[in-house]
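Why show two proteins at once? Because comparison is the fastest way to build intuition. When a single record is shown, students tend to memorize it. When two are placed side by side, the eye starts asking what differs. So, the first record is below.
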Amino acid sequence: MFTFIKDTKLEDLGAGVSRRILAHDGKMMGVQVNFETGAVGPLHNHPHEQLTYVLSGVFEFTIGEETHRVTAGDTLYKEPHVMHGCVCLEAGTLLDTFTPMREDFLK
């Protein structure tokens, strides 16, 4: 499968966060998430495994009971059902990979 950026839509999620759905099938999904400085990804959990690669920016991430500052090149893994969230300290972009895919993002 090829997914070309020109064929995708940037969704404004509000409060300084936007999302672009990338290639996906039933087993896996790539998602680009852009944050403005000060934007918050509120604490939440879901049944999907999630791998996050920090493309740019500086974030304070909480996964479970741990909180760390992360920057470009850092990678985070979130187990299913574990609470996680972030605060963007310097505008940036994350690349999230979910398995299975987030069908709720396509609705």
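Second record. Ask yourself what differs from the first in the token line.
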Amino acid sequence: MDPVRNPYVPGAGASPPELAGRHELFTQAGIALQRALAGKSARGFIATGLRGVGKTVVLGRAQQLAESAGYLTCFIEASEDKPLGQLLAPHVRRMMLELDRLGAVTEQVKRGLRVLKSFAAGLRIHHPMGFSIELDVEPERGTADSGDLETDLPDMISALGLAARSRQTGVALFVDEIQGLSELDMGALIMAMHRVMREGLPVVLLGAGLPHVVAMTGRSRSYAERLFEFPVLGPLSPDETAEALRPPAEREGVDFTQAAVDEVIRITQGYPYFIQEWAYHAWNVAHGDMILPGDIAVATEVSLTSLDAGFFRMRYERLTPREREYCQAMAELGPGAHRSGEIAERMNARTAALAPLRTALIGKGMIYSPAHGEVAFTVPLFENYLLRIRAMGSDPAYSED
């Protein structure tokens, strides 16, 4: 069929044509946003899940809800390479200047700009060569200028919330890949949200991250569980998978046979990224106005080639040879979670000796611990990829292109 009319979008973070199975979460986000604007306590959420379940898409759609409700918003992706303060400051500056343009300058907006100037000065204490921000105001001396993020960020976000309230609007912060924050930055962010909740300010945080972010926030601040909900984004049910497949095709005058739908469900196991990948390629190879099981079979070959060359290989290449051995041992044990002792036995090593490898892989976002003493892959179907590598008898990271 015509690839130009293909409605499916397998790109990372791209919003699919039908966001199946996530409606309850958007309802939850809408309630939190409306409560915050009304000056009522509003718990944000940090959605958790494996790679490819649509966490970024959910945040993007929630950002659209916030903007429709009149919020000022910022969307950042946490990074190990850049501290939280440097990620946030340019967005805070933009939002403060937007508040400044909304009408006659209020004292709270003027103070917010001064606090931001102080905050930027504090950031320069630790990053003198790597950060600058321009504002034509005097700093608010003694506020948010210590250089200690756990002290300064709550002051900054509180000043932003007060300025937004003076304009009868709110601020929504969206943090993707939130597990990428350092423990210090995570603690500062949690403290900032605790402060604005205590003061009843219209500031909402919505985040997304890998499953171990729940334990990470708990270690950082024990009261985090009272500030946020932690909804789990998992694979779609068979009915939800059909909902993701059929309506987009029907809008183009095309349909899937039930057998084709069943085959997509079986192969993708309901993971949204893979559903889009298989549907995209099935559309491109199909003839006529009906997608058949044979089209799914061809799409499987194309999809696996594409995923092996990109989605899987990109993550595999980040691993050291020893980390690859650890992952290969996990794959050979089969799908699901495995005890650290089982993996160590498979590698003919002591469990304690492999602990640094386990920690490094968790830090790289390749594995997580669903229960004490157990680990599982964060990338769905990654074990199948590793088994294909073993069957080929070669390491794609070192093969010639």
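One difference worth noting in the second protein: Strands lie at 44-48, 72-77, 171-176, 203-209, 228-229, 255-256, 290-291, 338-339, 367-368, 374-377.
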